[in-house]
Design a protein that fits this description.
1 helix; about 375 residues; Jelly Rolls; 5-stranded antiparallel β-sheet; 6-stranded antiparallel β-sheet
Length: about 375
């Protein structure tokens, strides 16, 4: 009787009801003769054998075979199903089991590599989660002058996605881009060692610590929507330096922010106030270079001894521009010492509130109380617009 299937070609006369299929231990399973004769027909061809080499294919038999099927486990009820389809419909490989759920394990030998789509150019699709069991797993691209795309969508330009550029990329070596569809929202430029947030807002619910330089391109705003914005050094005696580029200015906006104050004293503490343009001993103010381009934003007048009956009215006049700077004058009411309690608050003329370097301002006292007040201090506050 033949000892393996290949002997059928030369021992057809000796065929019995069964043919022995030898395993490496010499104990063969049984293959039904009718099953072998049905090869090529529509009848199934079962092979019932429990062996580490139940089916071995290769030029050297069981030595370094090309294919081996191991069924030696006594409770072996799992396997692989290969399902063919019509052309362009694909080939399916699935796990078989008597259980509901079954794992499918694919291993290279030793430190060998498992390659998917090594020669094909199509996409490798994972229909479920991909979990790494090894500590410190790596996801690497093999194209050092290209980019690795990470995207949750069907293309690399849909949804939020990440581009990691190779170390030899022509224009963006080692760069990182976080994108919304195809638009770059955050770019790490390795050549400049900087993060570029583009036109996006940078927000934080906590603190932000800088170990280097924070650079803004174009007109940008550093704001706080609630509470207080603190800019400070955390250690040592470091300075906070804000330097505009070229002839640019530093502008602080907000109540009291960036306001520069000056005082004019037309009448000293013991002198009765009197009317007049440029009244008193010191009724003029020269605008220095540091105030160039600023606007008048605050005005106040104060006397030492209150006057009575009527009001004292004060106008601020820009001699250089030949314009009154107030549409409603500063007033100090009867028996009051300051304009902050006046019935009619002073109003600055928005059309004539600006000053330039070397402008000359003048304090005009247009009216005084019937019993004149003693002393007059005029405070002016300027700020960049």
């Amino acid at each position: 009787m033949p000892t393996d299937i290949k002997d059928l070609s030369t021992h057809t006369a000796d065929l019995a009801d069964f043919i022995a299929v030898q395993d490496t231990g010499g104990t063969g399973g049984k293959v039904a003769l009718s099953s072998i004769m049905a090869l090529g027909a529509s009848t199934a061809f079962p092979v019932n054998v429990a062996s580490a080499t139940a089916l071995t294919v290769g030029p050297n038999g069981t030595t370094d075979p090309t294919l081996t099927i191991d069924t030696v486990a006594g409770t072996c009820v799992t396997g692989i199903k290969v399902t063919g389809n019509a052309a362009t419909s694909g080939v399916a490989l699935a796990a078989l089991s008597s259980g509901t759920d079954e794992d499918l394990t694919i291993d290279a030998k030793g430190t060998g590599t498992i390659t998917l789509a090594g020669t094909s150019t199509g996409t490798v699709i994972a229909g479920a989660d991909v979990v790494f069991s090894q500590a410190n797993p790596e996801i690497r691209g093999g194209d050092t002058d290209g980019a690795l795309y990470i995207s949750p969508s069907t293309t690399n330009a849909l949804g939020g996605n990440i581009l990691l550029y190779g170390d030899t990329h022509a224009t963006k070596a080692n760069d990182i881009e976080l994108r919304a569809t195809a638009g770059v929202e955050l770019h790490y430029d390795d050549s400049g060692s900087l993060w570029d947030f583009g036109a996006n807002l940078l927000t934080t619910t906590g603190g932000a610590t800088l170990g280097g330089t924070l650079t803004f391109t174009g007109a940008q705003t550093l704001t706080t929507t609630t509470g207080q914005l603190d800019i400070s050094t955390t250690a040592g005696n470091g300075d906070i330096v804000i330097t505009p580029h070229g002839t640019g200015s530093i502008k602080l906006v907000g109540a009291g922010a960036g306001v520069r104050y000056v005082q004019i004293v037309p009448f000293n503490a013991t002198t009765d106030c009197a009317t007049g343009d440029g009244a008193g001993d010191v009724g003029y103010l020269h605008i220095p270079e540091e105030f160039n381009g600023m606007d008048l934003v605050e005005v106040h007048a104060e006397c030492i001894t209150a006057g009575t009956t009527g009001t004292m009215d004060v106008q601020i006049y820009n001699v250089t521009q030949a314009a009154d700077m107030l549409t409603t004058k500063i007033t100090i009411d009867s028996a009051e010492t300051g304009s902050d309690t006046a019935a009619a608050a002073a109003v600055i003329d928005a059309a004539n509130d600006d000053v330039a370097e070397n402008d000359m301002l003048r304090v005009d006292v247009d009216a005084v109380h019937t019993t004149a007040a003693n002393g007059l201090w005029v405070t002016l506050g300027f700020r960049l617009p």
